[in-house]
Amino acid sequence: MNDFQSEVKQRIEDIAGNQPLQRHAADFMQASLLPCYSYNYEWLGRPIIQYPQDIVALQELIWQVRPDLIIETGIAHGGSLIFSASMLALLDMVDAIEAGATFDPAQSKRLVLGIDIDIRAHNRAAIEAHPMASRIHMIQGSSIAPDVAAQVCSIAAGYKRVLVCLDSNHTHDHVLAELHAYAPLTSVGSYCVVFDTVVEDMPADMFLDRPWGPDNNPKTAVWEYLKTHPEFEIDKSIQHKLLITVAPDGYLFRKCTN
Ligand SMILES: C[S@@+](CC[C@H](N)C(=O)[O-])C[C@H]1O[C@@H](n2cnc3c(N)ncnc32)[C@H](O)[C@@H]1O
């Protein structure tokens, strides 16, 4: 490791113990969630409901893992699908450069598989009309419906390096069911990213209009799932690095088969 990288690693470890900085970050998270800060961004023209820090973290993971399939629950306006598809397009280009071959998008097998219970017609139309559309396949239905999970498993069987992102209904039971259905598809060395775990760290009265809240959210589901799934570990270095993230304890690294 060169000097720069070891300095970065040390800085990230120091952040973990920097209580004033952690408090400022937590204050920002709380203050920014209410005015829907995460709704302010677009990726290649489509609204993406994420914090920019998490988008950068995903870019780093995609470069590290080089997945050929990204499974995403929760499509909304499609920004996260377009983001993932654009990263896969870059990986295809890099593969071609490394192989000394001509970059031919038509030859790409890399795919983003998105699942949503309600793909609005205008969102579907905009996603299907987007230049990244050829790398995107959408399934409409509840992510925890057995027939939907079966379709996803059957598609995933054709891929080797799989990254999973869970960002749909944020109740404990739903996310736990998603983890049981989709986390096993995560390849060894890849990640299952569970969004909105931050709900656990927020005040109870922040989510009165939602079925989730403290004690009933993606983080409690992750903790429950990990009790019986030692093949995954929380990659804390990501949340320490980001400070601002909706996914504390949500970046799950798959270290072995089981
Ligand atoms: C937070 S948004 C997803 C944001 C998107 N990943 C992005 O980054 O732009 C949550 C989405 O989950 C979908 N959803 C809610 N319940 C669901 C379920 N049971 N199965 C699949 N999708 C669901 C909603 O329709 C909504 O589009």
Task: Write up this protein.
- There is one protein chain.
- By secondary structure, this protein is α/β, with parallel strands linked by helices.
- The chain contains 9 helices and 9 strands.
- The strands form 2 sheets. A 7-stranded mixed β-sheet has the order 5-4-3-6-7-9-8, sandwiched between helices.
- Helix 3 packs parallel to helix 4 and helix 7 crosses helix 8.
- The longest helix is centred in the middle third of the chain and has 21 residues.
- The protein is globular.
- It starts with a helix and ends with a strand.
- The mean pLDDT is 96.
- The chain binds S-adenosylmethionine.
- S-adenosylmethionine binds next to helix 4 and strand 4.
Key terms for this structure?
258 residues; 43% helix; 9 strands; binds S-adenosylmethionine; alpha/beta; seven-stranded mixed β-sheet; two-stranded antiparallel ribbon; globular
Order of strands across the biggest sheet? Answer: 5-4-3-6-7-9-8
Number of helices in the DSSP assignment: 9
Relative strand content: 5-15%
Q: Report, as a whole number of angstroms, the end-to-end distance.
A: 30 Å
User: What structural class should be given to the helix and strand makeup?
Assistant: alpha/beta
| Rg, Cα atoms, Å | 18 Å
Spans where pLDDT lies below 50 across 5 or more residues: none
Q: Averaging pLDDT over every residue, what do you get? A: 96
| Cofactors and ligands | S-adenosylmethionine
